[in-house]
């Protein structure tokens, strides 16, 4: 008996329709139909889920010569955790909070040199504050804002540790929750697309005031103001992108779709490891270059360049085989 026949037989023995099995397996009814007609073969992770769901051994499902149903003597998926409605809601709520906190931390990092830029320009034209005082106040403010951002990252990440088990496929939603998550994601889709579009457009257009000021040979005070405005606009754009992406990602994580599909998780881990040392290096380069040249109005170009490089390398890591 081939795998397709076994799936069909086990489903009927349990009294489930194709729709009911699809709901339990987190797949479409068409996928079940294809499995049962041998038009497609489920991947190994789905086979493991089928074995757990039907209470049979994986050997029985995979070996055509085993005709008699072989039930598992031990729970092959005893490490699976069932996610309740309350746990699901706690995760979605905390993930949204985590996204806002991370976005706030990133905003603080982006805005940290603004006061230093403005005070340095003011001191150069001899208004109210000396150059030494301007540098001191600006640097202290920058370090305080960056330190605050780091503290936010650490505290927020610590609060999410209880949900680490959702980073892998060893969990399943209780019956009926799959549809709820899909409905929530569908309801959020409009907000997600809108915020992502606004964030991207702001990142593209934020440089226009600075370019116009340069064309008309504006004063250093005006240029500094527009640099500060650019950083403020970028920080707002990043906030929108991070918060929207985090909420969308929380739904995908529960549904194990997108980057959270079992086959995609290895790629995501590789990108995460790369990001773990890449961005601290970029921060060090940015701060080092800025302090060395004292040209904060120009060194911000590190960030868009670094983002493009990161996107390119991430694509390579995602496309390459593990």
UniProtKB/TrEMBL annotation:
GO terms for molecular function: DNA binding. PROSITE patterns: HTH_CROC1 (PS50943). The keyword tRNA-binding does not apply. InterPro entries: Cro/C1-type_HTH (IPR001387), Lambda_DNA-bd_dom_sf (IPR010982). The keyword Transmembrane applies. Keywords: DNA-binding, Membrane, Transmembrane, Transmembrane helix. The chain crosses the membrane at residues 102-122, 134-155, 192-216, 222-242, 274-292, 298-319. Pfam families: HTH_3 (PF01381). Residues 7-61 form the HTH cro/C1-type domain. Coiled coil: none annotated. This is HTH-type transcriptional regulator ImmR. It comes from Oxobacter pfennigii. The lineage of its organism: Bacteria, Bacillati, Bacillota, Clostridia, Eubacteriales. The gene is immR_2.
